[in-house]
Structures are given as C-alpha cells and as structure tokens.
C-alpha cells in the first residue's frame, strides 16, 4: 500500500511522534493506522512524544571543528531541566549533533534529524533523540545549527559550561597570528554580543526603527527640531559601535577597535586578515519559559488543587 503524506500527518497528529518514525511504522504495518499507533506505543515513541508539549528551554550549545579546520558548526540541543543538561548521555548527544551538523550537508534541522546518526548509523538523529527522551523522561529537541566551511581559519569558544557558544571565521593564511585573532574575536563575540559584522549589512528597516526611537527620545527631552536630526545621527553612529563587531572596542584594550586590531595583526603577519562571519548561540534565547508555581504543583499532586 502506498503511504501518503496525509497518512503520515494523521499518525503524527494522533501520536505526536516524529515524521520519519510515523512513515516507518506505516510502511511496516502496510498503512494500517491502528496497528501503526500500537507499534509506536510499543517502541516507546508515542510515549516519548507526549512530552513534546513541555517547554524545553534548558540544554547546551556546542561547537565542533574538524581536524583539518575546514568545517565547523555551532548547535543548540534543548531539554527541560538543568539536571538533564548535565547528564553525560545528553552532553554526548549535543556534542554528536554539533559534529554531525559540521560534517553533513543538511540544509536545516529537519534534514539533519532524518540523517543516519553519526554515533550509531543503525538509527537516525531523530531516533537517537527520541530514545534519550524515553530514557531520561524529558522533552528534548535539536533547535538549530550553523555550519561553517572555509579554507581560512575557524575558532570556537564555549562559555559558562554550554550557555554561550561562538564560532568565528577568518579569510587568512593559517598562521599563529591569525589563530590568535580568531580566538580573541570569539571571546569578543561571547562577551559583547554584536548583532552584525559591520555597519554595511545593517538593514534600512533596522536603522529606521532606531532613528525613530532616538528621534522620539530627543523630542521627549524637549530638544528643538533643528538639532534633533544631528542628535539622531550621532546616536546611530554610537549604535554601530555597540552592535557591529568590527566597530566595537576590543575588550582587552579599549584603545583598539576590532578593525584596528585586525589591521595591525595583518601588518604583523604580512598578509590580509579578513573577518568573514561569526555565529553566537545562547542557550534558550528566544524561548518563552513557563513560570512554574511550585506551591500549586504540590497542591495538585496532593489532590488539594481547586
């Protein structure tokens, strides 16, 4: 029997199991929906999927750089509690996901999850995640990754035991000087959280929004119209120095901007160093955490909740 996308979608809706798991059991049961549901339950996949509604805002961000330095990745894998984030098997999963992301050609998380798991090719990445959900009893997810491929220099930095992960790419000869610059920039990105590499990639929409905020602030302060525009442009320049990596002041020496640092180190090594891009992942950023009422939870468990 031909397995259609509609059948996969229906089974996924009924059980909450992963798309690839649903398709696989439908093939095994020749499209019998009830048998497919039973099979998912027997495999523990439906039970694990019931946890999928719970907020997973804890976890780890991890990095990986290949031995030859040509490929790298930053990845975030989430779970529900800090306790599980410290579990050795969860840590191993996060490290393997970062390595898989670096070495694969997957364009997005869904494609990565469908690949054979780098640590056990008898299962997919999704199946590895699902098995760990069933074992540790918490919802987990591979949230995102960013892959780097270069003939230049890659450097990574992880801060706070997996709270912040950074990767920086330079277009440069692989010299000790370039390695030092890449390492310093990874620390800079972790500490200063730039939003952009340089001012020329900041969109007009973002700038117009900032200008409007600064303009309103100046007017609210009672500044005359004729000086407001000058004030706004002054604040925009200050904004660039705060959010653009190349314009930030170096955290080790405030007399140097990052641009000045890179220029000086280029002269020292006798060839250009160019900052290509960076990625900075902070664990759980943008995920709305559910506020737990501990007292209410105790009342519910004791059967006292109204």
TrEMBL record:
Its main location: cytoplasm. GO terms for molecular function: translation elongation factor activity. Residues 72-285 form the Translation elongation factor EFTs/EF1B dimerisation domain. The keyword Chaperone does not apply. Keywords: Cytoplasm, Elongation factor, Protein biosynthesis. It comes from the Bacteria. Pfam families: EF_TS. The keyword Iron does not apply. Residues 81-84 are annotated as: Involved in Mg(2+) ion dislocation from EF-Tu. GO terms for cellular component: cytoplasm. It is found in: Cytoplasm. Associates with the EF-Tu.GDP complex and induces the exchange of GDP to GTP. It remains bound to the aminoacyl-tRNA.EF-Tu.GTP complex up to the GTP hydrolysis stage on the ribosome. Belongs to the EF-Ts family. This is Elongation factor Ts. It comes from Clostridium cylindrosporum DSM 605. The gene is tsf.
């Amino acid at each position: 029997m031909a397995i259609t996308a509609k059948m996969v979608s229906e089974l996924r809706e009924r059980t909450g199991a992963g798309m690839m798991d649903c398709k696989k059991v439908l093939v095994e049961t020749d499209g019998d929906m009830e048998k497919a549901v039973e099979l998912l339950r027997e495999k523990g996949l439906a039970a694990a999927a019931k946890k999928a509604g719970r907020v997973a805002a804890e976890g780890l961000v991890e990095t990986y750089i290949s031995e030859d330095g040509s490929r790298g990745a930053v990845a975030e894998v989430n779970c529900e509690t800090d306790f599980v984030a410290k579990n050795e098997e969860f840590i191993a999963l996060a490290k393997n996901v970062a390595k898989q992301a670096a070495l694969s050609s997957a364009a997005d998380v869904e494609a990565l999850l469908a690949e054979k798991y780098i640590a056990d090719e008898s299962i997919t990445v999704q199946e590895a995640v699902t098995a760990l959900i069933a074992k540790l009893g918490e919802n987990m997810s591979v949230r995102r990754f960013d892959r780097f491929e270069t003939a230049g220099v890659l450097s990574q930095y992880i801060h706070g035991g997996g709270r912040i992960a950074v990767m920086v790419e330079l277009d440069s000869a692989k010299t000790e000087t370039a390695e030092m610059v890449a390492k310093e920039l990874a620390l800079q990105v972790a500490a200063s959280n730039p939003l952009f590499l340089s001012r020329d990639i900041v969109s007009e929409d973002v700038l117009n929004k900032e200008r409007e905020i600064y303009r309103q602030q100046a007017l609210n302060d009672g500044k005359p119209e004729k000086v407001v525009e000058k004030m706004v442009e002054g604040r925009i320049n200050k904004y660039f120095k705060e959010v653009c990596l190349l314009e930030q002041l170096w955290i080790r020496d405030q007399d140097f901007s990052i641009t000045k640092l890179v220029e000086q180190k280029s002269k020292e090594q006798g060839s250009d160093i160019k900052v290509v891009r960076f990625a900075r992942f902070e664990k759980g950023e943008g995920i709305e955490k559910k506020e737990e009422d501990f007292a209410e939870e105790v009342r519910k468990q004791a059967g006292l909740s109204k």
